[in-house]
Amino acid sequence: MSAAQVFLVLEDMFFSFIASCGFGALSNPPFRGLLAAGCLGAFGHGFRYFLLNFCGLHIVPASFLAALGIGFLAYFAAQRMQMFIEVLTFPAVLPMIPGVPAYNTMISLVKFLNASPESGHGYLVQVFYNGFLALFVLSALVLGILCPHLMFSRRCWEFTRRPSENPHKKIN
Questions:
Q1: What is the pLDDT of residues 13-70, one digit of tens each?
Q2: In 10 A of CB 102, how many CB atoms?
Q3: Fewer CB near the last or first residue (10 Å), C or N of the chain?
Q4: Residue 114 CB coordination number (10 Å)
């Protein structure tokens, strides 16, 4: 990797740190949680940028791997800092939301609705391509964050293994 490529990754990480801290400030966490969320966001977005541009991965598996890394690191950071994991993961993942494909989906949809029947087919293809791309990237982000939480959280396993108690059931 050349120095210019390293600079591009670091630049991406810097702006992701700023965005993650901005999103994290909305939930008013302690300062150490805000910094941790910013660092997780910088790591995740920088890792995804590296996977996209230097490893040649598609955006969906790159987003999944980046979210998986954020999920694992956030779980251990939240445990060490004694915070909720959501305080760290949500602001860290928000800069990776696929805004451009979602925007292109809406633009293509408007163009499709205003197009003639002969030229509308290309716009419809763009609607489906961009729409499914945004859907799959969002799904990859959710699954990437959810996997470590389900693997390590005792409360999740206890909740699913505990016999169900219906509070509305009458006891005779």
A1: 999 999 999 999 988 888 999 999 999 999 999 999 999 999 999 999 999 999 999 9
A2: 17
A3: C
A4: 9
